[in-house]
Write a structure and sequence with these properties.
The protein is 27% helix and 20% strand.
Amino acid sequence: MPRVAVIFTGGTISMTAEASAGGRIPTLNGSAILARAPGVEAIADLVTVDLGRTPASHFSFEQLFRIAGEIRRSLAEPTIDGAVVVQGTDVIEETAFLWDLLHDGLKPVVVTGAIRSASDADDDGPDNIRDAVRCAASPELRDQGVVVVLDHTINQADDVTKTHASAMDTFQSLNVGPLGHVEGERVVLRRLRGTRRQVTAERAAADVQIVIAHVAMDGSQLDAAVANGAPGIVVEATGAGNTSPLLLEAAERAIGRGTAVALASRAAAGAPGDGYAFPGGGATWVRAGAMLAGHLGGPKARIALALGLGAGLPRQELADLLADPPGWGRALDLAPRPPGAASDG
């Protein structure tokens, strides 16, 4: 039987409605969450790690690196075939991407949670736990990095986005679509991931900021971020990378002072580029020294920039980390991989 480490951190899946508190609060530990998912013990032998009941919106970089350490330690055990991280869904697209950047092995890492709490009707937590364990135990997901599994859908960490505050199918990969689905007892992949972004880091740079471009905007917000000591700034530009010229002028001042500036798009999908050359257009940002963030949205670009700066990467390596890797987004043929073709990692 496969062996899977399950790391519990809290989130909606751990919450129940408490009248005295006026709403849902964390009450269930890892054992109680597993007890609500009958049949999971038949999928894999489970090794549990309980790290408490932290709402995902409370996570710090320090906590995320601690969880990354638990993932690494679990997967280093030769008898462990994969790992599941159970957390709140509010920032799952950021946390999963951070662990994806740090994960350099072949064993699957699956992040899951729940949209509905344990006391809600049609609680989705038990199904998500079973699906996540099944994916972590599946040889099909070896060498696929970190994935997010909810609503029977498998999404890659560098594209998954929470598209709705409370819908069950909120998690979507808007650029490349899902990797696959869990269909009953089967893990069915539609495609494989290509090259992934990776970085070796033990810390993240503090205070990397996001500035969102909007109508009638000057550069004061970006200037304030620099004045407050931000070592890096992600600008979520409109469309394909365009802003007001005043915001660009502020970015030029920041870059001149040594601040790392990345350009993302505030659109739900797509990437910034250098196709527009009017003042504030994407081409003028690139000429000013801004780094394009590929298909990463603002929050994910901030994660990559913070880890890259924390690792002390020089500018070109930062730019490479932010950019889409070669072949990103292309569907790879699902040629059968012979058993044992990939070594343990």
